[in-house]
Amino acid sequence: MSKSSVSLGIVGARGHTGSELIRLVQSHPAFELAFVSSRELAGQRVADHNDGYAGELRFEHLDADAVAAKAADAVILALPNGKAPDFVAALDATRPATVIVDLSADHRFDDRWYYGLPELTRANGAGQTRISNPGCYATAMQLAIAPVLDRLAGPPQCFGVSGYSGAGTTPSDRNNVELLRDNLMPYSLADHLHEREVSRRLGVPVEFMPHVAPHFRGICLTANLWLQQPLTLEQARALYRQRYAGERLLRVRDDAPWVSRIAGCHGVEIGGFTVAPGGKRLVVVATLDNLLKGAATQALQNLNLAFGFEELAGVPGDALLPAEDGR
Q1: 25: left (phi > 0), else alpha (psi -120 to 50), else beta?
Q2: H or E stretch including 18?
Q3: Whether residue 136 lies in the annotated active site
Q4: Tens of pLDDT along 158-174?
Q5: Catalytic pick among 136, 158, 220, 265
Q6: Over the range 92-113, which residues count as b (16 or more CB within 10 Å of their CB) and which as e?
Q7: With a threshold of 0.85, does the pTM exceed it?
């Protein structure tokens, strides 16, 4: 499906992830931003709201039929859960060849859609036209668990902390900076959407306890993993290094990664390996930027794979991962 120039539209461009997507598409060597849809910003210049964009393009308020009528080669749906199906239906009816990337959870449980977590699923990414982007926490959990998936003795227990940008722009307790000041806010401590997503994708039950912290962006995910057979610390590290050898957006490190290092970077860090006495309990820590590798960067990876471009085309090389020794 390779093309020298690809027209691309973004629906839901006002949000934090939409803003990151505009920057990435602007710097891509082959993607051309055809339209950006936002009800609240309709009529205003994109450049006035996004310092990563240069041009005269303006936000539009486009319903599903209007998006289909734009006839873009690809459409990214950066919408709240439950809002994507109308746009997909309109594109299916009139522009079925359009490549759609859905950043919501609306199609993550639909086997007709390709689930795009490239480090685990890229072998099936080429030529896909219906792509479901994984959740941000779900990305961190799967990458933290996958290297020992076949060695697990029970459900992984994952404790997650996210910056408040993960709660979106619609006002709520979870993005209220006054309520979050000097606070850590737990929520959805059982049956969270990402808990169900990861359990389905990995084929094992996963227990997930999310929290929101006062920082703006970045996820820290600590996974507690019970194993069938004991491992030494060196063996555990080797399993992760072997599994992710050559991954340019994933670094395995010995010490525990920090959110402050990953914010604004496009990759994932996994480290802090700890083996409890007896060797059957392994704890690992994963960090990523929820707006980038947890959303926009991953969407770009999936689009590149779908259209036959180099997977990291358009991803700034100087922001792939934090410096090895940076604190």
Answers
A1: alpha
A2: helix 16-26
A3: yes
A4: 999 999 998 887 888 99
A5: 136
A6: eeebeebbbbbbbbbbbeeeeb
A7: yes
